[in-house]
Specification:
15% strand, SAM-dependent_MTases_sf, transmembrane helix, 6-stranded mixed sheet, membrane, Methyltransferase type 11 domain-containing protein, Rossmann fold, transmembrane, alpha/beta
């Protein structure tokens, strides 16, 4: 709902595309706010869930292959997806083609120059190798957008959804607890799969012991990150 309000500050409700829409929760929120919605999703099982549960229009595969009409959209959302794509530059070009004059493109990605990465290095939760094919910085993403005739109006360096947990899981990883254990424990039962088989009781106990220590530290660092260092583990442009 907060993101819907931010989008509404720049453009009136119209048609929005969510690239990598997952299970469709964001599109459902936008539709309830008066938007016409369409999404793309590479995972067919996830796309089927969005169609079945939320009755959404979801296109399978890459956005470029569908050749949607030019200047047919008021807004496009790419939330923690661009770094997973094999062709991020081409996708940004396509977004410019699809947006109407005055349209809005919202992108959120992990920032490789954030203190989270500087401290965490290979233990950084949002590094997510090998699933992240590209790694962006705030400056690099801004240049990519400007190269494709976009104007960067606002950079949001704090994300309640990603930054506190990013710090928390990174600190746990640095401590030597099984890599990304807390994240795996918090996944839905369908997403956990066979990963649960490798989780040992000692790792769970260690995580529970460290949580009350690291959680307040993670919150403080999440607040200080944009204030002192002008960076964010996850940024939204």
């Amino acid at each position: 709902i907060r993101k819907r309000r931010r989008i509404n500050q720049f453009t009136k409700p119209g048609k929005i595309l969510d690239i990598g829409c997952g299970r469709g929760l964001f599109l459902d929120v936008m539709r309830r706010g008066g938007w016409s919605t369409v999404g793309t999703e590479l995972n067919e099982e996830t796309a089927s869930y969005a169609i079945k549960v939320y009755d959404l229009k979801i296109l399978s595969g890459d956005i470029i292959q569908h050749q949607l009409p030019a200047e047919s959209l008021n807004a496009i959302n790419i939330n923690q997806v661009l770094e997973h794509l094999k062709n991020p530059h081409e996708v940004i070009e396509e977004c410019h083609r699809l947006l109407r004059k005055g349209g809005v493109l919202i992108i959120s990605v992990p920032d490789l120059r954030s203190p989270q990465f500087t401290i965490g290095k290979e233990n950084w939760f949002l590094l997510d190798l090998p699933f992240h094919l590209f790694h962006f910085t705030e400056e690099g993403l801004s240049r990519l957008l400007q190269k494709n005739k976009f104007k960067v109006k606002r950079i949001k360096r704090f994300s309640l959804e990603y930054n506190p947990f990013g710090w928390l899981q990174t600190l746990l990883n640095i401590s030597g607890v099984r890599f990304n254990l807390l994240y795996d424990l918090l996944k839905t039962r369908e997403l956990r799969g066979k990963e649960m088989e490798s989780i040992k009781l000692t790792g769970i106990v260690a995580t529970l012991f460290l949580l009350p220590i690291y959680f307040p530290i993670a919150l403080v660092l999440s607040v200080l990150e944009p204030l002192l260092w002008k960076r964010g583990g996850s940024i939204e442009v």
